[in-house]
């Protein structure tokens, strides 16, 4: 057997395929695939702290990639084919003010907005584009709520492939759309939402032989494992109690779970952190299903329950609807892999309101870390779980800030500066009100006296 192969996640099927095959799903049973390794054939360090050295003799670009410095944990990639745009130089930062806000003593924020295209997606695209290069792909495509498309378009430009993007018309934040257009990808604005775009791109890729880089692509999730290696590295390989992550298409939570149980099974870590996956109440599929009892169940998932849930959505014509547009997804493609991650890490799920999300976002920014609304779901969810007593106040927690503040400046400016009336007009559908945390701009005449008066008035208030 080769070192790396693809394997169906359904234990009843368990079919395996070579890594040279391009498979968006198991051809035998239709389930998702994993990239799986024969670890006996992989040279690994004796302890986790020796993973990820910056000086691996891999040459050239790999030295500057925060993904490929963990190449030992992704041994599918042929050396000369590794794709990179300099991703993964991200930081785990202590966040004392946000810790106070959520009621914890020790909260850290993993700032994935520092990636070159401004979101965690670059970690995954390094994996997917490496595989795309290995199989000789020339055209790549994705459906997106915005960040996947921005990242894909950057990698496509960098590797000289043609990129095609499927976006729900009117459903994408401007920062992200601007990136896709600027990087030169063909951008299809489909009349519909992300769930429609996701269904269409899969059909088109199948019919036209185009390489799909959405997170059904298991090579993408390999790259996203490195977010967790960097978090553990940030804690000096002391294992935190909780990782809290926003849940949309559920690729991240799935990849995080895989990162942990691989390290655990290899004896490189002695325990696994628990994963909390946070939905927006406006896109609550995972939360609703798990809280109704849906489980991984060793791989025997209740498909009838999932089918009935989706039929219900169709019958009521219920669409995802949240200010956290990045996670405005009702049919997450990685649902089953996420259930597996939850089971293996004793994880939990929650849904939080858009007001909770957008207030948490303002607190995160007060820490000097700017994120987009979806990212703040992690902090809002942590607060809810601390209040419920699920996360202990003494716990060590890392929240993942998935995307940069400048991805969606409109939401930020509206939150801080709009009147209640204007906020209702633009964001009323999400049930957002003006907030005590808003930092209102101060209009002032071009007059020295009035400017000084305004500054003194503000100082007197503080
Ligand atoms: N946060 C941000 C900023 C995202 O862009 C996404 C997903 C998520 C969280 C959710 O992550 O899908 O792994 O559960 N954005 C995708 C996109 C769907 O198209 O950009 P997930």
With helices defined by DSSP (H or I, 4 residues minimum), what is the helix count?
A: 15
Low-pLDDT runs of 5+ residues are none
User: Based on the structure given, which CATH architecture of the domain at 91-118 and 218-410 is correct?
Assistant: 3-Layer(aba) Sandwich
| Proportion in β-strands | 5-15%
Rg computed from alpha carbons, rounded to a whole number of angstroms:
22 Å
Query: What helical percentage do the residues reach?
Result: 25-40%
Ligand species: ligand F0G
Strand order of the largest sheet: 4-5-13-10-11-12
Helix vs. strand class: alpha/beta
Number of strands: 13
The coarse overall form would be globular
What is the terminal-to-terminal distance?
67 Å
CATH topology heading of the domain at 91-118 and 218-410: Rossmann fold
Order of helices and strands: EEEEHEHEHEHEHEHEHEHHHEHHEHHH
Largest sheet: 6 strands, mixed
Mean pLDDT: 95
């Amino acid at each position: 057997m080769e070192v790396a192969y693809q394997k169906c996640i359904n234990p009843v099927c368990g079919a395996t395929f070579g890594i040279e095959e391009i498979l968006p799903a198991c051809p035998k049973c239709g389930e998702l695939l994993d990239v799986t390794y024969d670890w006996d054939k992989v040279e690994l360090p004796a302890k986790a702290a020796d993973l990820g050295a910056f000086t691996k003799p891999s040459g050239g670009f790999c030295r500057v990639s925060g993904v490929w410095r963990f190449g030992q944990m992704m041994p599918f990639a042929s050396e000369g084919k590794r794709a990179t745009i300099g991703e993964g130089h991200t930081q785990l930062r202590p966040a004392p003010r946000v810790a106070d806000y959520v009621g914890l003593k020790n909260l850290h924020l993993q700032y994935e907005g520092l990636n070159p295209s401004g979101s965690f997606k670059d970690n995954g695209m390094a994996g997917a584009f490496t595989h795309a290069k290995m199989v000789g792909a020339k055209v790549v495509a994705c459906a997106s709520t915005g960040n996947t498309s921005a990242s894909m378009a950057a990698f496509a430009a960098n590797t000289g492939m043609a990129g095609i993007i499927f976006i729900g018309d009117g459903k994408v934040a401007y920062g992200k759309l601007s990136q896709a257009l600027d990087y030169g990808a063909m951008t299809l604005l489909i009349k519909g939402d992300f769930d429609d775009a996701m269904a269409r791109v899969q059909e088109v890729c199948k019919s036209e032989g185009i390489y799909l880089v959405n997170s059904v692509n298991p090579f993408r999730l390999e790259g996203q494992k490195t977010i967790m290696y960097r978090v553990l590295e940030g804690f000096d390989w002391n294992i935190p109690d909780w990782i809290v992550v926003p849940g949309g298409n559920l690729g991240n939570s799935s990849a995080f779970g895989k990162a942990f149980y691989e390290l655990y099974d290899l004896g490189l870590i002695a325990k696994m952190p628990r994963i909390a996956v946070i939905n927006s109440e406006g896109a609550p599929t995972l939360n609703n299903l798990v809280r109704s009892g849906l489980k991984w169940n060793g791989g025997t998932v209740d498909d009838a329950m999932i089918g009935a849930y989706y039929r219900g959505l169709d019958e009521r014509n219920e669409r995802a609807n949240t200010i956290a547009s990045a996670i405005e997804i009702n049919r997450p493609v990685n649902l089953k892999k996420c259930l597996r991650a939850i089971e293996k890490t004793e994880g939990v799920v929650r849904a939080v309101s858009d007001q909770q999300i957008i207030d948490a976002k303002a607190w995160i920014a007060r820490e000097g870390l700017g994120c987009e609304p979806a990212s703040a779901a992690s902090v809002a969810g942590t607060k809810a779980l601390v209040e419920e007593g699920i996360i202990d106040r003494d716990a060590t927690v890392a929240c993942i800030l998935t995307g940069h503040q400048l991805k969606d400046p409109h939401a930020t400016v509206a939150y801080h500066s709009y009147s209640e009336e204007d906020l209702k007009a633009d964001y009323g559908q999400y049930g957002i009100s003006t907030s005590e945390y808003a930092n209102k701009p101060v209009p002032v005449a071009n007059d020295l006296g009035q400017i000084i008066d305004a500054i003194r008035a503000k100082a007197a208030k503080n």
